[in-house]
User: Which sequence fits this backbone?
């Protein structure tokens, strides 16, 4: 997905000084970043497709709308599907256009890989890269983009799992089963790695003979005895298709009609299917909706964890018309996607197509992702507005372990690793560390001299976590504590060692580990682990579950949570169940509950189904912390943990307009007191009038006490006639004077999503009638903003001086201003047409450069980059590469660029790398200096790292790159020059302008100015409400 290449040499802060810059960006600590990182693109590479060579595979979107784009909202659910001749006419128009395109494409040597005609009008072709420009010029082509790849959202199978019988009871599906509501008649398509229809839990006999015969023909039509368990007359798996085959991505995509879940990396889809609707012949084993019918749509690899982008599109298309007759009236009711890609983008074509299915009337459920509590990392396609995004919560009988040190606070959120034994009694022993660099404990030598009988404290990194435990136990450790090497909650890890681990092993957070290291530095520390102190984790968050808001659109996601670690069917075993976990296991719980809702409420639209799920969720979910528990933010768990009975039984429905999700107000910039109005709809499905009392609540009472955010509902008491709906308005007032200062002006080092818990305001909007309570979540992350403006130009007088007056119109926010030499500008690109890079479904981002600048402060150089559009995070979808020619010989020597520390989705932190083009070595010295929801960044590097010194003139070029989809260079500013310490105009490097105040600065011509392309000043405005930067021309 993300353009990334590993490079073997990386140093961290490896210069002979600390490089701290007063008031500047935070330095990167030694050893805090993995030695695998993304390299910058070679200078001169533009669009990764336009400059590619040889055969490339691309998706081509055409301009005739597909049927899912033109039907009325919820058409399938409401029985408003166009007549078959009308549908056929729409499809014929799309097919004719596709055939015409393919005929012209064939003249260019292109060959068809696949196409979709219902969810979206897309053709996938293989073509010589030299022909791409001509291909894009064919009449009707909207966009040409590379294929996407996604990942299954499964956690290591070594995590503890619960039984599906426990799941049925816990999510309150049992009372519905007892009442005859088991999902009967509801059809669910599982877009995944396929389904093992020979398994006893999924309609098969589970006998070795049948398993062997059916898997032997995995790439052939389902025939003979196998056909008894797959197809319209089968007990459970009623159909499906394999859109990838058995060898991709190690070989070509070879579709076939048999979606059995084969291959060494198979099994994911079988687990998912069993959780949704498994049922053994004797009824002893059941999934959440055991009466539902399943369709296996294979879109994920049998030999890797990857899922094919075009196969997902084809699978969504197939779900609209399983029998392939062109009439979508036989569309499935629910699609489950336990897959995705972190930092979900609206430009993602799977999100675009999934939303089209929702619009047509199909409930689409997708996993939020397993990228942990990192800001805005929730994945696509779950990030699409209409899709139900599912977070993972803990099993009801999970435990959280407490580590009690003799020095310092108790660590109350230690995670036991399921592949190690549980302590049978109290363990109390001294803490000791391995002796290798960083204390990572990756060899026997690292534990030479380790005191036997101690508890080993080891840092994550370099080798497998279970190997660390094996080395420690061999040295006599009685327990192992491994602390994370990135911010966030402590994770669970898979087992990967040759020997079993025989001592209890736990993981703790980076912060907790560093505190223990510090305590050890001051003296001996004893750790006590008492099983009696373990804390139940019922209805709590799992640390690995991805956090919202969405990185594009800033929508309130995930929508809802569910436990995800369940013992479920293991492919190719016939009868066995094994551990399965992650949001991959949480999404099918919600799909199963949605099937129960649809059986009881067959006319419900996708928006109503989503609203019912949210209305009935348990909102008391909590998040473990080092100090105890907090109520879980809406941006982690949505409306709460899913509950089937209230979702299906409720006679009222409280829904937001459009998609039925939670209320998300994004990151509004507040310069005074601001008001927003959100409309909800309250529906009464009974045959008698009902009266509801409306209320708004805060998740954190300290937020309510601050009075910075206020919610007023009108009317507060709503009487809804039988079978009718009424609008309810929620007026949200944000008093900027009561907000804390915005803490995210420099967010490069912030990878821990808990940093958002304080500034984020959230809670629930409720409607209560008797014992029925309906609720949706609400969330807002308000920015106390400044509104600093500057003149477009200033003129030097005869003395070479001018006044620069900065004015702040905000009534509440102080504006920090950073000043740079303006060395280059770029015109704004035209607004993109539908399908162009940057638009929904385009599979391409557009980063539009506005200006670049530079300054030197002490012993560092700082490059400022300003763009016309804001981005939520510093990492994606934009990379900025500054190519530096230090001796101006026409050959670039270094690249200064931003990238996520450690790799895609691993830390959430953005660092600045200095890459030596001659040696392929890279160093990271500083975190990227820039804010959340900002259009500017500052890239800082030591002068010495670039071989620069005072008075030296260098040249540089800035490239803006789509680092999420294509690797395309979407804009550039070239031909810039600057002399170290030789700015043309002298100004302070930084200043502040208070609320409703102005500051006048002296601008002075520098008599010692060196050569440069500087034309004025580039001002970067911190905490800006609207304009993140200003350009000031200096004349005279």
Assistant:
């Amino acid at each position: 997905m993300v353009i990334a290449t590993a490079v073997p040499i990386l140093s961290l802060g490896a210069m002979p000084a600390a490089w701290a810059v007063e008031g500047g960006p935070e330095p990167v600590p030694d050893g805090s970043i993995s030695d695998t990182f993304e390299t910058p693109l070679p200078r001169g590479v533009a669009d990764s497709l336009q400059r590619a060579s040889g055969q490339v595979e691309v998706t081509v979107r055409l301009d005739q709308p597909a049927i899912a784009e033109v039907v009325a909202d919820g058409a399938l659910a409401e029985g408003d599907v166009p007549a078959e001749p009308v549908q056929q006419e729409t499809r014929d128009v799309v097919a004719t256009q596709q055939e015409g395109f393919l005929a012209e494409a064939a003249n260019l040597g292109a060959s068809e890989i696949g196409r979709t005609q219902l969810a979206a009008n897309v053709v996938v072709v293989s073509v010589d890269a030299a022909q791409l420009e001509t291909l894009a010029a064919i009449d009707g082509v909207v966009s040409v983009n590379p294929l996407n790849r996604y990942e299954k959202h499964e956690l290591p199978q070594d995590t503890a799992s619960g039984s599906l019988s426990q799941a049925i009871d816990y999510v309150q599906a049992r009372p519905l089963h007892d009442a005859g509501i088991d999902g009967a008649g509801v059809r669910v398509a599982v877009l995944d790695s396929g389904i093992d229809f020979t398994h006893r839990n999924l309609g098969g006999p589970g006998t070795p003979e049948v398993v062997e015969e059916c898997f032997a023909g995995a790439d052939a039509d389902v025939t003979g005895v196998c056909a008894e368990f797959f197809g319209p007359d089968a007990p459970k798996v009623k159909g499906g298709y394999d859109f990838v085959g058995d060898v991709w991505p190690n070989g070509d995509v070879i579709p076939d009609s048999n979606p059995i879940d084969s291959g060494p990396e198979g099994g994911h889809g079988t687990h998912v299917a069993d959780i949704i609707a498994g049922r053994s012949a004797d009824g002893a084993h059941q999934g959440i909706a055991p009466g539902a019918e399943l369709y296996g749509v294979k879109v994920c690899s049998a030999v890797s964890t990857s899922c094919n982008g075009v196969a997902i599109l084809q699978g969504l298309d197939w779900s609209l018309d399983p029998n392939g007759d062109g009439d979508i009236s036989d569309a499935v009711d629910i699609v489950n996607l336990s897959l995705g890609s972190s930092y979900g983008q609206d430009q993602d074509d799977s999100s675009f197509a999934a939303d089209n299915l929702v619009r047509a009337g199909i409930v689409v459920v997708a996993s939020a992702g397993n990228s942990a509590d990192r800001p805005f990392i929730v994945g696509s396609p779950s990030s699409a507005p209409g899709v139900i995004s599912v977070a993972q919560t803990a099993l009801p009988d999970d435990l959280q372990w407490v580590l009690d040190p003799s020095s310092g606070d108790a660590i109350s959120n230690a995670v036991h690793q399921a592949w190690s034994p549980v302590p049978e009694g109290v363990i109390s022993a001294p803490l000791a560390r391995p002796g290798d660099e960083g204390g990572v404990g990756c060899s026997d030598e690292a534990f030479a001299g380790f005191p036997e009988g101690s508890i080993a404290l080891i840092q994550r990194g370099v080798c497998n976590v279970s190997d660390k435990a094996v080395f420690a136990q061999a040295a006599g450790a009685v327990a192992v504590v491994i602390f994370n090497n990135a911010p966030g909650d402590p994770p669970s890890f898979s087992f990967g060692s040759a020997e079993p681990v025989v001592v209890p092993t736990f993981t703790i957070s980076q912060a907790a580990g560093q505190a223990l290291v510090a305590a050890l530095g001051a003296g001996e520390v004893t750790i006590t682990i008492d099983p009696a102190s373990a804390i139940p984790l019922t209805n709590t968050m799992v640390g690995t579950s991805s956090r919202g808001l969405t990185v594009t659109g800033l929508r309130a996601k995930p929508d809802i949570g569910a436990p995800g670690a369940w013992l479920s069917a293991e492919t190719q075993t016939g009868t066995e169940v094994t551990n399965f976990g992650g949001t991959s296991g949480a999404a099918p719980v919600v799909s199963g509950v949605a099937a129960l809702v649809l059986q009881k409420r067959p006319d419900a639209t996708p928006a109503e189904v989503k609203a019912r799920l949210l209305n009935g969720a348990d909102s008391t979910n909590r998040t473990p912390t080092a100090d105890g528990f907090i109520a879980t933010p809406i941006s982690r768990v949505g409306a709460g943990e899913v509950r089937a009975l209230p979702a299906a039984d409720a006679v009222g429905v409280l829904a937001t307009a459009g998609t039925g999700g939670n209320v998300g107000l994004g990151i509004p910039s507040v310069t005074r007191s601001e008001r927003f109005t959100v409309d909800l709809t309250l529906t009464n499905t009974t045959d008698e009038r009902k009266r509801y009392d409306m209320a708004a609540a805060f998740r954190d009472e300290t937020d309510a006490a601050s009075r910075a955010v206020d919610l007023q509902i009108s009317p507060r008491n709503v009487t809804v006639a039988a079978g009718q709906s009424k609008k309810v308005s929620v007026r949200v007032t944000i008093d900027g004077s009561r907000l804390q200062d915005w803490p995210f002006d420099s967010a490069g080092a912030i990878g821990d999503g808990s940093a958002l818990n304080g500034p984020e305001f959230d809670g629930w909007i409720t409607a209560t009638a008797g014992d029925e309570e309906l609720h949706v979540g609400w969330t807002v992350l308000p920015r106390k903003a400044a509104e600093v403006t500057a003149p477009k130009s200033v003129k030097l007088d005869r003395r070479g001086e001018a006044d620069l007056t900065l004015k702040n119109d905000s009534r509440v926010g102080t504006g920090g201003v950073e000043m740079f030499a303006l060395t280059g500008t770029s015109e704004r690109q035209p607004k993109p047409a539908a399908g162009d890079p940057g638009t929904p479904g385009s599979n391409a981002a557009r980063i539009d450069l506005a200006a670049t600048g530079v300054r030197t402060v002490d012993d560092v150089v700082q490059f400022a980059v300003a763009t016309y559009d804001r981005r939520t995070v510093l990492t994606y979808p934009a990379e900025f590469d500054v190519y530096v020619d230090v001796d101006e010989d026409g050959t670039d020597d270094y690249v200064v660029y931003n990238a996520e520390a450690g790799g895609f989705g691993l830390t959430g932190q953005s660092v600045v790398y200095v890459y030596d083009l001659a040696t392929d070595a890279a160093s990271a010295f500083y975190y990227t200096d820039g804010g959340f929801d900002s259009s500017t960044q500052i890239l800082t590097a030591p002068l010495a790292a670039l071989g620069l010194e005072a008075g030296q003139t260098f040249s540089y070029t800035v490239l803006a790159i789509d680092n999420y989809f294509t690797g395309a260079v979407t804009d550039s500013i070239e031909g810039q020059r600057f002399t170290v310490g030789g700015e043309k105009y002298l100004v302070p490097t930084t200043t502040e302008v208070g609320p409703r105040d102005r500051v006048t600065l002296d601008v002075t011509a520098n008599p010692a100015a060196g050569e440069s392309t500087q034309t004025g000043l580039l001002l970067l405005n911190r905490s800006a409400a609207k304009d993140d930067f200003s350009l000031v021309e200096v004349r005279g």
User: Anything to note?
Assistant: The first strand starts at residue 9 and ends at 12.
